[in-house]
Amino acid sequence: MCLGIPGQIVGLDPDHAMLATVEVSGVRRAVNIACIVDEAHPRATALGAWVLVHVGFAMSRIDEREAAQTLAILTELGEAQAELAAMRAGAGSA
How buried is 77 (Cβ within 10 angstroms: 0-12 exposed, 13-18 middle, 19+ buried)? Predict the structure, then answer.
C-alpha cells in the first residue's frame, strides 16, 4: 500500500523552481512540487498549501481540514499497530 502523508509547504527553494520545503508533523523535508504546479496553480501559490507527500513528491493539494483528519487517522493507525504488536508479543509468552 502507498500512503500520501499530509504536509504544509513552508518554503520555496530559490535555486530550484520545482523544489519546496514541506513540514510534516514538525519535520521539514525538501520535496518536488512539479505535480501541483501548472498554469492555474503557479509556483508562488504553493507556499502555505497543504499537500499529500509521497516518495519526495507533493502529489496533490488538499485543504487544511482534510490534512488534519488524515494525520489524526494515521496517528490512530500507528497506535493500533503498537497495540497489535503488544498483543502478539503477549500471546507468544503465555
Answer: exposed
Give yes or no for a contact between 93 and 44, defined as CB atoms under 8 angstroms apart: no
Bridge partners of residue 22, in order along the sequence: 9, 29
Per residue in 12-70, pLDDT (tens digit) is 999 999 999 999 888 999 999 999 999 999 999 999 999 999 999 999 999 999 999 98
User: Distance between CA 50 and CA 1 in Å, rounded?
Assistant: 22
Domain boundaries, the chain: 5-92
Strand 50-54 to 5-12 pairing: antiparallel
This prediction has a pTM of 0.80
- The dotted CATH code for 5-92 is 2.30.30.140
